[in-house]
Structure prediction request, 496 residues.
Amino acid sequence: MSATAVSDVRIPHFIGGEWVNSKSTEWQDLVNPATHAALGKVPLADVAEVNAAIEAAAAAFPEWRRTPPEDRIQPLFKLKMLLEEHLDELGRLITIENGKTLSEAKAELRRAIENVEVACGIPMMMQGYNLEDVARGIDETMIRQPMGVVAAITAFNFPAMIPFWFLPYAIATGNTFVLKPSERVPLTMKRTFELLQQIGLPKGVVNLVNGGKTAVDTILDHPKVRAVSFVGSTPVAKYIYARAAASGKRAQCQGGAKNPVIVLPDADMTMATNIISDSAFGCAGQRCLAVSVAVAIGDAQKTFRDAIAESAAKLRVGYGLDEGVQMGPVITPQSKSRIETLIGEGEKSGAKVLVDGRNASVSNYESGNFVKPTILDAVPTDSELAHTEIFGPVLSLVHAEDLDEAMAFLQKNPFGNQASLFTSNGSAARRFRYEAPAGNIGINIGVAAPMAYFPFSGWKDSFFGDMHGQGRDAIEFYTDKKVVVERWAKEHSRKF
Ligand code: NAD
Prediction:
């Protein structure tokens, strides 16, 4: 394929139930990360456009909150069916704009749909609680009410799933919603909002603005936005958490990660290798739950190292729509170059490049952003790379003598998104579950992604906030609690 071409397809916003062409003066070119074919242009919304989306959501709120929960979930049942019907089409779109393989894209859509299914339980999940006779003749009730306009700002690596950690719960609980997806992958949500148009939601209940920092800052400062959900890198997560709080908003901000896995010598090495290889290199390592540093203990240092190196070297890298491809490109040429620079820094800090995926060339896709699976062996535990998020298909191997030493290494990790252990020893597993400083724990699991009815529970620099995405936390996040204490004088009832 030749160098990047330019396309004139312009991505619109979806505001107040209408597709709106952006008047922004700033546009970014979109390209397929594998083929570098031009995909269109995305606007970086200006303040007026974002304000219009927020005002549309605010105008829709009073009627939407009065709509009974049972009626609010009916469009979500339709949405589930439409997403199922369009799974293949949406999957292809994800591969085209994000680069992951078609099977990874469809797996992501499954998780998106799962969140729609869970949100259909809102009439049960949103219930409050009550107690009669908190004092003689006085009753007390806790009611959950929707907050108003809520917004989500999302990352590039799961163009469908991440917005769906928020959208179904936000609207099922009676809020109105503004989404600002990653400007690097706007096509999946554009198509999804075309489907959202078909499910009978009143105008303004869901809105889509494409943009970058200006759009985000406008959301963060707008007095009518009550809550903000964010998924992206840690520096931006911290910034958004602080700025949202400064204007009195509720915020949940999911940040970056450096997920460790410990491999004990008693682990089933074939299973561990297959699962860890998929975790480290699946989605080209661009998963916030990707395992990126493996701590092998005792004999596992050799057995695991040899097995994972063989597995990594065998993976078929290419365009995710081509048959048999197991790993796609990374998102941009800048990502590729950042990842390759970090591999070089690892080497300088004393690590040995066991499998080198730099300067990858994939036939027919020479201009694609490919980095092949890479393994760095004996990464010094005190080197910067041991704790830096690479967000690419790079697995660092760290050696430890025993579980104590491995756990001490985990404690130093500034992130806490996920930690995994491979073992056949229940006692080691229990200790790990008990002590590992991360919110999502895998025991013989490589990607410990919580199902939609559990919270996505990152810790430390992987999460800023109190209530997480998904599950019961989503209901807490999207509702205000109101407590009513009630007394009625007996004389009044005697009148009737
Ligand atoms: P990013 O932080 O660059 O962008 C995320 C969003 O923030 C985008 O919508 C972008 O437009 C916006 N943004 C970027 N810079 C901004 C700024 N200076 N001010 C205001 N808004 C800004 O992240 P990304 O590259 O899209 O995604 C990759 C990162 O996301 C990785 O660090 C990964 O670990 C993390 N991630 C975390 C989770 C999780 O659940 N913890 C899930 C997925 C991805």
